[in-house]
Amino acid sequence: MHGGTGPWTQAPRRRRSDARRSIDAILNAARVVLGERPAASMEDIAATAGVTRQTVYAHFPSRDALVAALVEAAAAEFAALLDDAGLDTAPPADALAQFLGAGWRFLDRYPMLLNATAARIPRPDNDPHDFAPPRLERLIRRGQHTGDVDPSLPADWLAAVIFGLQHTAVAQVATGRLTAHEAEALCLESTLRLCGGEARRPNPA
């Protein structure tokens, strides 16, 4: 038998590559369509993805399965955003701004998480509610060590309050009381005051 990459090995690779492209197109279409119309059908998503309904069902046997896959992809994306945010190296005030900004960029990309049906969205295996709080706590402890964050309050308490602010802001956006831009600015201002007062500001971008 001969090694290498003959036609017998190239065809399966091509099929896998085509399948991956279809899956990515479907997930991206679901992200956009469900953000605009939470009750959109599989047919709506297929049309936006440029594939047939049968192709969608070949990869995702039900709408619930598609939503679950989308939520898993979203969680992985948010984890990558935090990885790239410099939370362990940037000055603490900058890192706090980066942490909050990553959350709002994530919600801007996945607006389905802001609508009234978000409570029915399944929890992903790699849930941001599990991995994000410890990262924020670690950042706060670093800021307390450097004197940039008030050390008189426990780091886990500060982290919990900051997440509470975020959740409140998200709810305000979902009900139309604030724009996402207004909510992001209020969250940052409130967080900086909570953690260290007005004197400690992130460096301008």
Automatic annotation (TrEMBL):
Residue ranges the UniProt entry marks as DNA-binding: 41-60
All residue ranges annotated as the HTH tetR-type domain in the record: 20-78
Keywords (A to Z) from UniProt: DNA-binding, Transcription, Transcription regulation
Tagged with keyword Transcription: yes
Keyword Transcription regulation: yes
Transmembrane stretches, start-end: none
Coiled-coil ranges per UniProt: none
SUPFAM superfamilies assigned: Homeodomain-like, Tetracyclin repressor-like, C-terminal domain
GO MF term list: DNA-binding transcription factor activity; transcription cis-regulatory region binding
Domain of life: Bacteria
Gene3D superfamilies per the UniProt record, alphabetical: Tetracycline Repressor, domain 2
InterPro entries per the UniProt record, alphabetical: Homeodomain-like_sf (IPR009057), HTH-type_TetR-like_transc_reg (IPR050109), HTH_TetR (IPR001647), Tet_transcr_reg_TetR-rel_C_sf (IPR036271)
Name assigned to this protein: HTH tetR-type domain-containing protein
